[in-house]
Amino acid sequence: MRNHNYLNMQVLKVFILLGIVCLNNSIIYGQDSMEDAIVSLSFLEENESKIIVTKAVDQSGLPIEDLELYYYVKRTFSLLPIGDPFNATDENGIIEVEFPNDLPGDTEGNVIIVVKIIESDLYNDLTLETTKNWGLLVQLPDQKVEKRSLWAAAANAPISLILTVSVMIISVWYIICYILFKLYKISKIKPLKP
Amino acid sequence: MRKVINKQQTYRTKRGKALLGHIVNTSLKYKLWIAFLLLIIVIGGYAYYRQLKFGLIVTAMRDYTSWGIYISNFVFFVAISLVGSLISSVLKLSKNEWSRPLTRISEIIAIAAIICAAVIIIVDMGRPDRFFYVITHLRIQSPIIWDVIIISTYLVISLLLLYLSLLPDIALCRDRLTAIPKWKKMLYRFMAINWNNHPKQVVMLQKVSRILAITVLPVAFAIHTVTSWLFATTWRPGWDSTNLGPYFVSGAFMAGAAVIIFTMYLIRIHLKLKKYITEIHFEKMGKLLVLLSLIYLYFNINEYLGPAFKMVGVEGEHITELFTGKYAPMYWFVQIGGLILPIILLIFRPFRKPLPIFIISLFVILGAWLKRFLIVIPSLQHPYLPIQGVDESYLHYIPTWEEWAITMSSFAWLLLIITVLIKLFPVIPILKAKLDSETIVKLNIFKNEKS
User: Fold this and answer.
1) Are A110 and A159 within one domain?
2) If we measure between CA atoms, which residue out of B123, B31, B65 comes closest to residue B396?
3) Does B437 touch chain A (CB under 8 A)?
4) Residue A46's domain spans which residues?
5) pLDDT digit string, tens, across residues B102-117
6) Of the residues A19, B184, B195, B229, which has the fewest C-beta atoms closer than 10 A?
């Protein structure tokens, strides 16, 4: 009977402990709960300059002030930062960032603009990607008309280089093959009879 | 369980016993040495696992110093692999008969070094699985492709060089060695390719050996010249030089000669071959090392005098950093301790005795390795086109433990390959005289056990 009471007490203690842990967790997560910012992008072209206008509002539609946003343009291997090192929204939740005029795009002049919220205290991380026709047109070299050179594609290596390298490789490997052939011949020679 | 070999090995001559004894008997010292090398390889393997798992970020290589000690090590291994051609080709063709006992040692070192060089370059790649893209997307304009082609060619030639000189001795092992495990007997039988001392075989072997001795020379020059072009065709201070090809080749011959001296001393002591690797060999190798060091000194003066006299821009900064900057202690140790002092000391006969020349060659080897470090790293830290907003970590290069462990492991591999090849094959030709039909008939040395 005493043992039974003791067991009940232990179970009660465990439940109380679990209750405290759950309560603490809800307080902690409740305090740190982050919300998603709503970020919208619009693009302005005035005279020569191209401007990315970003507006950030919270879930209730109110503008977010002092929210830091990071701007990039996607390149082949990584993201190229554009704008100032720190870009924060004003009291209307708006930032204007000038897009450089000299960035190459693809063959149609398209560039991918990336806007990010990174490690904000109040809002979750966010990445927005938009394709915009603001880059310079890039003509890919046509392999058929590309001049043969050291910097050309593999198919357009200089003939003199191809010939020199090939002659050297063939000469040396011809000798190697000849030696291997001779070794084969050696292996076929039968011993002299005593 | 390992089978106990009960047969007792008998030898016909004292020479045979001395030169074949280590193949039959395995000492505890040998086993401990192998265990030690394997331990280093395992540690290196763990470091490489970390590098594969986390990427090259575990190394100290960054945007500026993108070639670290892996590439220094690669250049060092390529350099010492040239020693095979030095002894087997240059000395052989110039009829220096005294170098005959050193031929195999040099060829074994060459093979081990070129294998390690090829492997370390793959270690340097962040994604080794992409190595095959180098082949499938081959651009003949790229010096890296030239290097891949020439390294694989030189590896095949080095293997052939060793094999051709070993062939009669492999047949001898096949016929004479009885107290060896079955797998070794099978290996010798397979590798001896029916060699039976037929005069026709001897003539053919002599012919192909001579052809190979001539072929290896331009290939050896090409391998290190192309390695130097990896640097010379990259636009960085210190590398923008027309002197780089001969500078690398002469440095390689010097380092190779030192490695030969170092190895032959250890083989002489541990395999008890004092009668076969004599003081005369050390004496001659000492003189050869002085000659090669003087040539290298000449190219060193050429390499540094011009830029140091002009001190132009980044090139000047690079020279200042080497002469008086943070790399100065290493630079002057390499030039004085690894080049000038060895030349001066080795001019005197007492320093060409086995022990002193062994210690001196150790300094030359250390200097040669550090020299490759100095060729690769300081140049990379002074780019002609600096990056904006450079991270602090780009400006310095202190290799991480992973890099050191992998580098040490590559040395352990080098020593392991050398040790295993020495254990498997006679390291000094069993035949005292030069192999020709006349000698063979006279000595009847390859007579089969059964006949």
Assistant:
1) no
2) B65
3) no
4) 38-132
5) 999 999 999 999 999 9
6) A19
